[in-house]
């Protein structure tokens, strides 16, 4: 048997101890082939030992350097580390919120670019962790293929968005018609090229590691690209469906931190030792109240027109009234803020467990006092999925503009058949009067 020296990483091929020659075995011939085969099997077994590694065997990633501006360090040098971190987080939080408001003022296109930039940075932070953990194995084409797959998936999702929302414009441009018509085939062909390159890059001694990292890349794409696509889809449903969910998570993060900082005594979950029940509960009530005070100045749709609702029997007895006047969006905002404050934090707990598994404090050191971009958007991605599902389930109805766009690309005979069918249907309902034949 081979002696394995396993200290957090697999030994290289040179560390293998060759088995003693069998009695009567001569060099060369069939015996040499058998010996080579046994050697390859032993190497596979050694690298297969990766599957039995525990969390304590994961190689440690060197801690990130402190990127706090020197002017802040000097200004806060007399404070304890607890209060120093409080001030750094507070100042950087206000700075980020101010920049966010500026980008909102610049319009929807800049918000889309912001979402794309955040997506790419989050992808980079997660992929970098994987590369640092397994960098000693020198996996061929890992980083190149990871970024290639990111490009392919973004091409697919953004192409779908253009086809859905800008089809009328695209139909006027002959150069774009081909790309839109065969968009999914082109996207699949691009992905298939990357898939084939991955298969061709497989190296015998790295099989398991390469498939680990292949899965790592695809899970990262699922977390970052898919969720950011849903954020943009929510934006196209209306600015309010972009601002309120994001504001809910931001509000919950801030108020939960403040309540936990000043009143926190009871630990909430072992994955995040600094999280407390006081912060969790305080963040919930603060978020529900703050989000329902959201005010916009625009032409109101049905969601923002006051309506009267009948109360359930048990509420009638408590409130002593049968009806209540509310804006429909107030009901939706209660649902959004409740999810942001009760379920949204589990996105942060998931990220905390991920970081603990790889023995790191933050995903990166991009933002002093906060960590990486992923540290700030771990809850936002979960919120984006909920909002998209909520809109498709309870808000969005049939979209006449999309139906019209599909009709315009049909053949004239197909359009005429649809016209006749629709006309007959409207006559049966009494909406149109039947035409008299002369």
Automatic annotation (TrEMBL):
Pathway: Lipid metabolism; Phospholipid metabolism; CDP-diacylglycerol biosynthesis; CDP-diacylglycerol from sn-glycerol 3-phosphate: step 3/3
A Pfam family the protein falls into: CTP_transf_1
Single GO MF annotation: phosphatidate cytidylyltransferase activity
EC number: 2.7.7.41
Primary location class: membrane
Chain intervals for the UniProt region annotation (Disordered): 1-67
Annotated catalysed reactions: 1-octadecanoyl-2-(9Z-octadecenoyl)-sn-glycero-3-phosphate + CTP + H(+) = 1-octadecanoyl-2-(9Z-octadecenoyl)-sn-glycero-3-cytidine-5'-diphosphate + diphosphate; 1-octadecanoyl-2-(5Z,8Z,11Z,14Z-eicosatetraenoyl)-sn-glycero-3-phosphate + CTP + H(+) = 1-octadecanoyl-2-(5Z,8Z,11Z,14Z-eicosatetraenoyl)-sn-glycero-3-cytidine-5'-diphosphate + diphosphate; 1-hexadecanoyl-2-(5Z,8Z,11Z,14Z-eicosatetraenoyl)-sn-glycero-3-phosphate + CTP + H(+) = 1-hexadecanoyl-2-(5Z,8Z,11Z,14Z-eicosatetraenoyl)-sn-glycero-3-cytidine-5'-diphosphate + diphosphate; a 1,2-diacyl-sn-glycero-3-phosphate + CTP + H(+) = a CDP-1,2-diacyl-sn-glycerol + diphosphate
Lipid metabolism keyword on record: yes
Bilayer-crossing regions: 146-170, 182-203, 209-232, 239-263, 329-351
Entry's Gene Ontology BP terms: CDP-diacylglycerol biosynthetic process; lipid droplet formation; phosphatidylinositol biosynthetic process; positive regulation of fat cell differentiation
The keyword GTP-binding appears for this protein: no
Recorded topology in the membrane: Multi-pass membrane protein
InterPro entries assigned: PC_trans, PC_Trfase_euk
Record's keyword terms, sorted: Lipid biosynthesis, Lipid metabolism, Membrane, Nucleotidyltransferase, Phospholipid biosynthesis, Phospholipid metabolism, Transferase, Transmembrane, Transmembrane helix
GO cellular component: endoplasmic reticulum; endoplasmic reticulum membrane
Places the protein is found: Membrane
Compositionally skewed regions (Basic and acidic residues) per UniProt: 22-56
Its job: Catalyzes the conversion of phosphatidic acid (PA) to CDP-diacylglycerol (CDP-DAG), an essential intermediate in the synthesis of phosphatidylglycerol, cardiolipin and phosphatidylinositol.
Family note: Belongs to the CDS family.
PANTHER family xrefs: PHOSPHATIDATE CYTIDYLYLTRANSFERASE (PTHR13773), PHOSPHATIDATE CYTIDYLYLTRANSFERASE 1 (PTHR13773:SF16)
Record protein name field: Phosphatidate cytidylyltransferase
Gene source species: Nomascus leucogenys
Lineage of origin: Eukaryota, Metazoa, Chordata, Craniata, Vertebrata
Gene: CDS1
């Amino acid at each position: 048997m081979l002696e394995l020296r396993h200290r957090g990483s697999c030994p290289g091929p040179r560390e293998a101890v060759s088995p003693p020659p069998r009695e009567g075995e001569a060099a060369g011939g069939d015996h040499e082939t058998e010996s080579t085969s046994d050697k390859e099997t032993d190497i596979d077994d050694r690298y297969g030992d990766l599957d039995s590694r525990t969390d304590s065997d994961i190689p440690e990633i060197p801690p990130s350097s402190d990127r706090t501006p020197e002017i802040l360090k000097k200004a806060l040098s007399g404070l304890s580390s607890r209060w120093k971190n409080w001030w750094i987080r507070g100042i950087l939080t206000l700075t980020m919120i101010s920049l966010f408001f500026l980008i909102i003022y610049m319009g929807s296109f800049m918000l889309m670019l912001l979402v794309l930039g955040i997506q790419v940075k989050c992808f980079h932070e997660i992929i970098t962790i994987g590369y640092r953990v397994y960098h000693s194995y020198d996996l061929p084409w890992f980083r190149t293929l990871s970024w290639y797959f990111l490009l392919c998936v973004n091409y697919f999702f953004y192409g779908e968005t253009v086809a859905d929302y800008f089809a009328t414009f695209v139909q006027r441009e002959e150069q774009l018609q081909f790309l839109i018509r065969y968009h999914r085939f082109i996207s699949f062909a691009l992905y298939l090229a990357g898939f084939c390159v991955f298969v061709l890059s497989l190296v015998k001694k790295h099989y398991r590691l390469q498939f680990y990292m292949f899965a790592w890349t695809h899970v990262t794409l699922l977390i970052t690209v898919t969720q950011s696509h849903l954020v943009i889809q929510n934006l196209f449903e209306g600015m309010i469906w972009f601002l309120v969910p994001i504001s809910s998570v931001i509000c919950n993060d801030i108020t939960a931190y403040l309540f936990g900082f000043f009143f926190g005594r009871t630990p909430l979950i072992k994955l995040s030792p600094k999280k407390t029940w006081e912060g969790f509960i305080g963040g919930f009530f603060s978020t529900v109240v703050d989000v329902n005070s959201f005010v916009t100045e625009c032409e109101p749709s049905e969601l923002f027109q006051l309506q009267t609702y009948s109360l359930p029997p048990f509420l009638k007895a408590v409130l002593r009234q049968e009806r209540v006047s509310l804006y429909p969006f107030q009901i939706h905002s209660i649902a959004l803020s409740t999810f942001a404050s009760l379920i949204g934090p589990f996105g942060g707990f998931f990220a905390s467990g991920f970081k603990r598994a790889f023995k790191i404090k933050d995903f990166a050191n991009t933002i002093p006092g906060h960590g990486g971009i992923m540290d700030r958007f771990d809850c936002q991605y979960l919120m984006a999925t909920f909002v998209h599902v909520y809109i498709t389930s309870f808000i969005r109805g049939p979209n006449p503009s999309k139906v019209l766009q599909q009709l315009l690309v049909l053949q004239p005979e197909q359009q005429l058949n649809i016209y006749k069918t629709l006309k007959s249907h409207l006559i049966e309902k009494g909406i149109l009067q039947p035409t008299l034949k002369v």
